[in-house]
Amino acid sequence: MAHFSVTHKLLLAKILAAKRIHISARKREIPRRSASGAAPLSYAQEQLWFTDQLEPGTHAYNIVRAMRLKGRLDVVALERSLNEIVRRHEVLRTTFIEVEGAPVQVIAAQMTLTLATVDLNQLPESEREAEIRRAASEELRRPFDLARGPLLRMSLLRLSAEEHVLLLTMHHIISDGWSRGVVFNELETLYGAFASGRPSPLAELPIQYADYAVWQRERFLAGAYERHLTYWNERLAGAPMLRLPTDRPRPPVQSFRGAACTVPLSETLSAQLKALSQREGVTLFMTLLAAFQTLLARYTQQDDIVVGTDVANRNRLEIEGLIGFFITHVILRADLSGNPDFLTLLKRVRQVAVDAFAHQDVPFSKLVEALKPERSPGYAPLFQVLFVLQNMPGQNLRLAGLTLSELQLDVQTSKFDLAVFVYETGRGIVSNWVYKTDLFDAATVRRMAGHYETLLGSIIEQPDAPLSTLEMLTEPEKKAKAMEREERQSTRIRNLRGATRKRVNLAQVAEIKTGYLEAEETLPLVIEPALADIDAVGWAGNSQALIESHLLEHGAILFRGFDVTSAAEFERFASALCPQLFGEYGDLPREGVAGKVYGSTPYPADQAILFHNESSHMHRWPTKIWFFCIKSAEQGGETPIIDCRKIYRQLDPKLRPRFADKKLMYVRNYVGGLDVDWQTFFHTIEKSVVEDYCRKAGLGFEWTHDGTLKTRQICPAIIAHPQTGEMVFFNQLQLHHISCLDAAVRDSMLSLFGAEDLPRNVLYGDGTPIENSVMDEIGALYREIAVSFPWRENDILMLNNMLVSHGRNPYVGARKIVVAMGEMFKLENLSSEAATAST
After folding, report:
1. 417-470 residue pLDDT tens
2. In 3D, which of 388, 452, 454 has the Cα closest to residue 415?
3. Contact 668, 708 (CB under 8 A)
4. What is the DSSP secondary structure assignment for residue 92, as one 8-state letter?
């Protein structure tokens, strides 16, 4: 312990005391099992075996290592060395079968594997690296048969006479991260001996993995883990699930599809973090963990943060040199309540870690059994986010006469929603962020990793500052937000002050008269011509400031009695107010002179179109929208409108922060026949064109097995209006939520498609369902506030789409309403304050 500081010695003493570890305990050896033949599985193995039974053919638990060997390789000595390791370790000769309803491990007396060699020397050098990646990827995806085995595969890729790549693939049920070090340490010794003609210098192993499995089960039956289970029952009582926002809703069953991004910290920051840890008497792991839990608290708005970590579970001398599945999980629950400073949190996290590691011996599967969490095939039990500081032996491999380097392979699986693996290198700390691609986009995880790095730097600068004040945004993000604020302020000044500074032409005012449909309503404002033969288009073009002022105040204007009698004249009227009308809307048929006027939504006449802000479920939407009545229906067919400012004010105060913080996730399946197919919506038959559009729009997408397109978009539910600053309930909740359909249609849709594949759906932004009771409450509020009026032919209704939502009532008889849209607003230009405000 000479290299430990005084503080680390004291901390280690606390851990040892808490674990009640004594020298005598270390001397009590695990005995050899008395019976030969089949043996029980360890509890960790049993958990993986059950997983394999539920998901046969899964490759989620394959472990692949790729090692580049440069120099004159003795292939015979290498193969002999690998087979000697197989001989030494029974677990590498083990298969798993079911006997009388229970799994057992069967150990082959002997097993000789062939080191399959693939010659890549004939390939052009530029293609060899790609072939290495392809071969490794194929190994990763190729499943093992636990009952037939072998559960170890080895192959050698020959690049040239003096360059090879060794691929070793094992199933996790017989190996773990620590085992990698054991394999390569033994390989180093054995290859050196065999290549020089010497016998193996390694002593026989005192026990085998099956001996450990028997011993572990006997201890559990004897009650050796009871005090640990008692601790965890108390420690995790009432622990919440981490509500980490995702880019897509959680699938009902985990696919384990994954990817990763690697982020190095600077040498300076790495050194500062280690110095802070030493100064505060904690380990580097504790400091990094406390910062990570702070990051999660900021993302989730929770102050009770539960994450897991890996522990090698090698705290006995006789198992340190064994290959096998020993690793287990420990749960670390941090209390961030009261907005403490980081140093205070660090003390809390240190105590949590000390206590947790003192109770690490309980098998994780038995912990799950004891705690009985609510289980779902879509979630890992007890925790969904993992944080690990990797510190395993055997990281530097040497073979006689060879230069070795490990290849970093592409991650293709993830067992947790998010797993962060941190390790130290000679140039600083590096973090590897592994995530489920069903839930997260690469950009989201990279952004989170950047926030973590910024947070660590802020902690170094202000370790005694309250957690809520620690900076998390990266420098580019801060600059972008500063520019947004400046632009927003400039726009607000231009729109509010600029309009009032302009003189209103009294002649323009004299040409019209204003009023309301009902005395008690201020929505819509009705504008009618006061003079005969007024040029509607000319008047509109000269009255933009006046109309804009009225629109920002009222949100809706009904132009009634103007001489506009065709779709072409309507298009010119709208163009006079907004010269650049939007002409790329994919859902609707086009009309008018320049193709920037659309027919009504093709929706059954006997059903209502519910309230929505146009395109608020997309990455951009029109600020202004016009409706023109060419022919009114015989009965019904009104376009009811709602003041979204009033909705926000009257919304249950408990719901406001929920919608503001979580936002909304709109899910769309482009199912032809019931909705527009993707070819019609995107005006193309090329999937690549659609994919490019989705990427540019920040739209999550996937192609289903039958070629249907599914998209997901995260959008706000509440915004601050970019011109007036007023809070607005801005969304398409009613138009997308399944509960808003009538019962017969709803039941039919659910029966036909299931909840996951509905043509349209909306969830909270974290992927959780929006409660029907919440939708009922919103629906009642809409009905209370809605304003509806009968259409008259040649009426024009103009809305500020970010202040007023609209719908359509059922109707009887012919009806023709055409639409124009303009002044497009991008989601990315919505200020963070506008997108997340909740008061």
Report:
1. 999 999 998 899 999 999 999 889 898 899 999 999 999 999 999 999 999 899
2. 388
3. no
4. G
Fold of 641-787+825-836: Double-stranded beta-helix (3.60.130)
Report how far residue 839's alpha carbon sits from residue 720's, in angstroms, rounded to the nearest whole number: 10
E-only strand ranges, 199-357: 258-264, 304-311, 328-335
Q: Angle at the Cα of 657 (from 655 to 658), degrees rounded to 5?
A: 60
User: Is 671 a residue whose pLDDT tops 50?
Assistant: yes
Q: Which of 362, 107, 423, 118 lies closest to 216, judged by CA?
A: 362
CA dist., res. 739 & res. 747, Å (int): 10
Q: Which CATH architecture has domain 225-393+410-471?
A: 2-Layer Sandwich (3.30)
Q: C-alpha distances in angstroms, 167 versus 66, 134, 153?
A: 5, 12, 8
The torsion region of residue 38 among left (phi > 0), alpha (psi -120 to 50) and beta comes to beta
Q: What single-letter amino acid sits at 338? A: G
Whether the CA torsion 13, 309, 404, 164 is positive or negative: it is positive
Q: Which two tokens stand for residue 131?
A: 């072939």
Alpha carbon distance 806, 336 (integer Å): 43
Say which CATH topology domain 31-207 has.
Chloramphenicol Acetyltransferase (3.30.559)
CB contact set of 97 (below 8 Å; sequence gap of 6+): 103, 104, 106, 147
The pair of three-digit structure tokens given for residue 698, joined into one six-digit string: 């920040």
From residue 444, alpha-carbon distances to 246, 248, 301, 474, 741 in Å are 9, 11, 17, 14, 33
What pLDDT digit, counting tens, does each position of 689-698 carry?
A: 999 988 988 8
